[in-house]
Amino acid sequence: MDLTASELSQIREDLHQIPELALHETRTHDYLLGKINAWQTPYMTIKAVPAVPTAILVHLAGTRGERTIGYRTDIDALPVTEKTGLPFASTIPGQMHACGHDVHMTIALGILQHFTQVQPEQNMVFFFQPAEENDYGGKRVFDAGAFSGMWRPDEFFGLHDNPQLPAGQIASRMGTLFAGTTEIHLTFTGVSGHAAFPQQANDALVAAAAFVMQVQTVVSRNVDPVRGGVVTIGDLHAGTIGNVIAGSAHLDGTIRAFRQTDIEMMQGRVRAIAEGVAATYGVTAGLQLIQGGYMPVENAPEQTRDLIDFMTADPATDFSDIAPAMTGEDFGFLLQQFPGTMVWLGVGDPQHTLHSDQMSPDEASLLPGVQALTRFLTHRMAE
Ligand SMILES: CC(=O)N[C@@H](CCC[C@H](N)C(=O)O)C(=O)O
Asked: What are phi and psi of 321, to 5 degrees?
């Protein structure tokens, strides 16, 4: 018997209560492993990844076993204080599944459980991946050599929830689905001093303010407007009190675009502006630009054409074609190594965006999500 809607809801609510940050997903790991172990079959093998201890890989040997189909879910949460008021809200202060990875894990477990009841035709590898929000867990596991031998998927599929779409709807597109991103971490260091004697200090706060304004020109003046891009500075800390000139200022932000060439051009402009501001204001700039595994999520032509054709023709699946989004995903790195497709799953909470402290996916999305992906993967294995 496949998992029922209420069993899927219970799993999602259990996971929702224990959100853990990137590379610290120990309780989540143990919960997932408990479920997977309960569904042991003679054709299942479970593998740990010592370099990334919260990762789990599960191999199901197929009856034909000529090819290997990969399915990936992320498992980490965000440093967000939940304000949903749900009876099963986060029990970990300051941490929340505000990006719906609890939904992603539930869907992956639902699909896995199905194929422990019905042996797949082809081999399958399920990847429970830590650190999607930060620290690029997919790349870390790949770099650790975890996808070699029987663990190497010929193709990889994955899903992300989308509160703006109706619960249970699947959406994707040919080509690029999500942007590539680069984290910006910048510290200006000057000389602090008394507010009354600015001539004897080098004000890092003024340099940071100038940087925030100048960096807006990257998108408005350097990026092709038809292709688009984003530079957001989301965090700025400088100084301690009103009558002391700030000796240092720290900024964090993100660069986003759909093409890797645009991302690299934008990285260069951000670096030039940071260096220019530092020279102008007599401070030093310590800049880190980290792309890690957040490459653009490029859906592969063959797998994606097949997925769209299958889901469009499947009367039980509500499928829609969708425009690309500036969200990032380190599944983009895995799709550079293995052909495959990422899809959105609608979770019907249009009042709230991903990363909102009130984001509350509709659990009516769980069963259709599991069933649509299970039907597609079954079809894919018969190809
Ligand atoms: C789907 C989603 O929300 N993903 C995150 C990925 C973050 C990448 C990295 N930490 C960065 O900020 O560049 C997103 O914020 O889009």
From this structure: -80, 145
